[in-house]
């Protein structure tokens, strides 16, 4: 019996090279490295196709059980030889399938057996094996994301020789789709009998899930939990536990998580009523653009579950601490089964306890609130995006208090800044001050370098009080001189009162000594008071000021100079009001006779600040 052999042929997606032989009894491929053999009996061969692929040309063989096998690496000149052999031995015609080379990224999808074909102008652009699809998710309203499982053969090779693999592809599927109801879909349907309308992306997603058998993986179900509350990613999921993997089934997203991809298990009490069970994943799961490296499940402490594993006694004996029957709290059942199937130890809460007796403390990271757990080898911040910090990776921890001027708020909380050896600085804020001592003692026990930048309470309150006193003093010093003329302005509505207010503002604006301010004040008050007395005004406060000003002599004015230097010094702002002095002088010129004596008194003041202006006033 003659046999025809072809060298350097690949089987399926394997990177291994082998030999392909065709004989009357069938076909066979044998690898060169591990000598794996794939045999196809002649009675099983039903059809054959010839494709142009990345690795030259491909022979695709269909079998009677609806399976198919592919062999890549054939040369163009091998087509005629293969076609004659298939026709001679198996009575099968080798069909040539055209492949489009347009490079368009829009077309039509068609599920052909175990493959998803993308067609452009009715020609195949590429094909995706549905048996390699791990997850199908709807990313947005019109996008469907397909995630692929990594090839097991690639993991065994070194990273240098490992091939590149596609891990995700997205399809944009716009529009709507009408799902037919009933068997007579071809008959004319009324509006009431029309099928359910849904988005085309959802219909495509459902078709992929059905054909790829996502959630219907071969193997017996060991245990299932329904409506488990998952905090990250948030939602309620059904947990289907198989021998080698976990299936998460939600309303929108389905995930397949291999136990081998679980790196850590945590069982931490959140409070007196709830317990957190956390899976640390080496391969994060995705929802759209968001990656989740931790799967956080929450269970009620008092909730109990009765469960029986769908496993034989012989299989159960292969796993450590796995029981056939469970009648315990739900979190203990779930964590016990995960520990046995994943063969990972569970990390629990350490010896650290907060003031309230909990292993964690409340803290904020940026704008996210969560629980900060101090464990034996880790500091674990559990929130919407959990963060795990190894104690061996911490260079220094700094205690600080932000916003010292705030006073009471800053005195109640403190911040913890963790400086890692090779990564960024992480600052956890709004930690209760009562937790400072437990946290500090915990870090000292772990021999971590500490730095305390917290301001003592006494200094903090003193600083806050000092700031407030200075503010009040500045307000009082700046407001003492302005309210006095405003009182006169409030009592009198005449134009002369406005003149008085303007002149009183001049009283304090340029002064640096009380003699200047008092002299200017007496002059203005006398002038305005004379006018008001002539008119029979009502101003009692102005008359009191006049009386006080007349009773005080020059000696009193000298004494006042030493008493009010601070207020005058704190009032540099009204200096721009100097131009009003000319207006005031013009108003005073209406009564030239009572003015000469007060003007002589005010000349020393004006000689200090603006002698040129006062000389002009005297001349007028």
* Annotation, overall tally of beta strands: 34
Instruction: Report how far the terminal alpha carbons are from each other.
Output: 138 Å
For the largest beta-sheet, the strand count, sense and barrel status come to: 8 strands, mixed
> Which stretches are poorly predicted, pLDDT < 50 over at least 5 residues?
153-158, 182-193, 460-550, 552-572, 576-620
**What number is the mean pLDDT?**
74
Number of alpha- plus pi-helical segments: 17
Radius of gyration from CA coordinates: 45 Å
The chain-level structural class is: alpha+beta
Percent in helix: 25-40%
- The strand order across the widest sheet is 4-3-2-1-7-6-5-8
Which overall shape is indicated by the principal axes computed on the Cα atoms? Answer: elongated
Question: What descriptors fit this protein?
Answer:
620 residues, alpha+beta, eight-stranded mixed beta sheet, 17 helices, 34 strands, 31% helix, 35% strand, elongated
């Amino acid at each position: 019996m003659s046999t025809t052999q072809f060298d350097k042929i690949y089987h399926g997606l394997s990177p291994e090279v082998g030999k392909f032989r065709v004989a009357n009894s069938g076909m066979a491929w044998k690898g060169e490295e591990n000598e794996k053999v794939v045999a196809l009996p002649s009675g099983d061969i039903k059809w054959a196709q010839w494709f142009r692929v990345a690795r030259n040309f491909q022979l695709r063989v269909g079998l009677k059980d609806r399976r198919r096998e592919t062999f890549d690496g054939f040369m163009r000149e091998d087509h005629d030889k293969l076609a004659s052999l298939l026709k001679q031995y198996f009575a099968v015609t080798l069909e040539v399938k055209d492949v489009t080379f347009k490079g368009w990224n829009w077309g039509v999808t068609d599920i052909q057996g175990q493959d998803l074909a993308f067609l452009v102008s009715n020609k195949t652009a590429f094909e995706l094996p549905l048996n390699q699809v791990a997850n199908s998710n709807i990313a947005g309203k019109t996008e469907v994301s397909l995630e692929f499982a990594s090839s097991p053969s690639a993991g065994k090779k070194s990273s240098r020789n490992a091939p590149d693999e596609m891990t995700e592809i997205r399809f944009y599927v716009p529009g709507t789709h009408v799902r037919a109801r009933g068997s007579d879909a071809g008959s004319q349907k009324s509006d009431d009998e029309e099928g359910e309308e849904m988005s085309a992306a959802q219909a495509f997603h459902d078709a992929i899930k059905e054909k790829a058998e996502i959630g219907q993986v071969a193997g017996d179900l060991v245990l299932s939990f329904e409506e488990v509350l998952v905090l990250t990613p948030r939602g309620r999921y059904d947990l289907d536990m198989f021998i080698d993997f976990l299936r998460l089934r939600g309303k929108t997203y389905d995930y397949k998580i291999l136990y081998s991809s679980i790196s850590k298990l945590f069982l931490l009490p959140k409070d007196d009523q709830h317990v957190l069970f956390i899976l640390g994943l080496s391969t994060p799961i995705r929802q759209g653009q968001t990656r989740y490296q931790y799967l956080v499940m929450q269970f009620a402490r008092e909730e109990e579950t009765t469960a029986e594993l769908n496993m034989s006694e012989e299989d159960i004996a292969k796993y450590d601490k796995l029981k056939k029957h469970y009648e315990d709290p739900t979190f203990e059942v779930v964590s016990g089964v995960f520990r046995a199937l994943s063969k990972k130890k569970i990390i629990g809460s350490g010896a650290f306890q907060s003031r309230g007796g909990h292993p964690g403390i409340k803290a904020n990271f940026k704008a996210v609130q969560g629980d900060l757990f101090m464990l034996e080898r880790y500091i674990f911040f559990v929130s919407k995006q959990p963060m795990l910090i190894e104690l061996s990776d911490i260079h220094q921890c700094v205690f600080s208090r932000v916003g010292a001027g705030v006073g009471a708020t800053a005195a109640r909380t403190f911040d913890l800044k963790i400086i890692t050896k090779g990564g960024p600085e992480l600052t956890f804020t709004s930690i209760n001050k009562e937790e400072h001592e437990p946290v500090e003692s915990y870090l000292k026990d772990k021999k971590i370098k500490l730095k305390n930048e917290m301001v003592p309470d006494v200094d903090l309150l003193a600083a806050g009080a000092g700031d407030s006193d200075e503010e009040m003093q500045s307000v009082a010093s700046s407001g003492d001189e302005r309210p006095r003329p405003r009182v006169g302005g409030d009592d009198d509505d005449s134009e002369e009162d406005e003149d008085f207010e303007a002149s009183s503002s001049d009283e304090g604006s340029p002064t640096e000594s009380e003699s200047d301010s008092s002299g200017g004040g007496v002059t203005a008050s006398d002038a305005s008071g004379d006018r008001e007395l002539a008119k029979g005004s009502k101003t009692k406060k102005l008359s009191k000021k006049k009386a006080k000003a007349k009773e005080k002599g020059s000696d009193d004015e000298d004494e006042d100079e030493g008493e009010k230097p601070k207020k005058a010094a704190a009032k540099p702002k009204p200096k721009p009001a100097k131009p009003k002095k000319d207006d005031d002088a013009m108003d005073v010129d209406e009564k030239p006779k009572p003015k000469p004596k007060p003007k002589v008194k005010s000349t020393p003041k004006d000689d200090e600040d603006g002698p040129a202006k006062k000389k002009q006033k005297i001349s007028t």
